[in-house]
Amino acid sequence: MRAVLPGLVAAFVAGGLMRPGEASAQAVPSPYRFVEERQEVGVFAGYLDAATGRFGYGPAGGLWLGARYGLELAGPLSIEGVVGAVKGTRDIVSPARPEGDRVVGEGDALITTIDGRLKLSVTGARSWRGLSPFLVFGGGVAFDVADQPTSDALLESDEVFEFGTTFFGTAGIGTRWFVTRRLALRTDAIFSLWKLTTPPGFGDPQLALGPVAEGEWVRGLSITGSILFRW
Q1: CA neighbours closer than 13 Å in the CB half-sphere of residue 45
Q2: Would residue 28 count as lying in a domain?
Q3: Contact of 50 with 60, CB cutoff 8 Å
Q4: Are 119 and 79 in contact (CB under 8 A)?
Q5: What is the dihedral of CA 205, 209, 211, 215, to 10 degrees?
Q6: Distance between CA 166 and CA 143 in Å, rounded?
Q7: Could you tell me the CATH number of the domain that includes residue 80?
Q8: I need a labelling partner for 191 at 20 to 30 A (CA). Which of 1, 3, 10, 106 fits?
Q9: Domain count of the fold of the chain
């Protein structure tokens, strides 16, 4: 009997240590959380820096404000639509003047962008410690809605640059931080492209500017921050 008693005591203590309540209290919580909400809408602000082309008459970028709507698809994929406006300036350039002295004025630029994007989440349909990094790429259109600058009157009609409507391509990286289930913050670093159409007057052989292309693709780099509401 005395030999059996210590064994019963040990079994009782071991059983107490393995009680469900205490065992679960020792479990390590996962840093991953499922993203349950499927839609989001938000506003963003940031800055777009854009190349102005060979002759410098393109818009140089500026403050970028806009709104976005996103829809989560299966797994890591989601789609979004983005509408924005880039407020900045552009130089008025005369090809007839000597190189280095061709700028004759400055005009406003208000580039409106409308595009759709595909977003690929690095963490899939989950977040890691509230963070969800992603890759994004897409395309749409860009056009200038600013009034024609008065300095254009200093140029010949075939020397006047017009932004027109052009393809707007995007690719970049970013992350979302889910503050709560309904509220998230987001930041994006985006590489973009649009095309500048060369005014016909720049190709005049008498100006001796060499080969002049009818248009050229120029890059833009931007950083934006968004606040998102999810449901």
Answers
A1: 2
A2: no
A3: yes
A4: yes
A5: -100
A6: 6
A7: 2.40.160.20
A8: 106
A9: 1
CA separation for the pair 206, 162 (Å, rounded): 22
Domain of 49 in residue numbering reads as: 35-230
Compute the distance between CA of residue 174 and CA of residue 188 in angstroms, rounded to an integer: 4
Tell me whether residue 70 is in a domain.
yes
pLDDT truncated to tens, each residue of the chain (231 aa)? 445 444 534 443 444 444 445 444 566 789 999 999 999 999 999 999 999 999 999 999 999 999 999 999 989 999 999 999 999 999 999 999 999 999 999 999 999 999 999 999 999 999 999 999 999 999 999 999 999 999 999 999 999 999 999 999 999 999 999 999 999 999 999 999 999 999 999 999 999 999 999 999 999 999 999 999 999
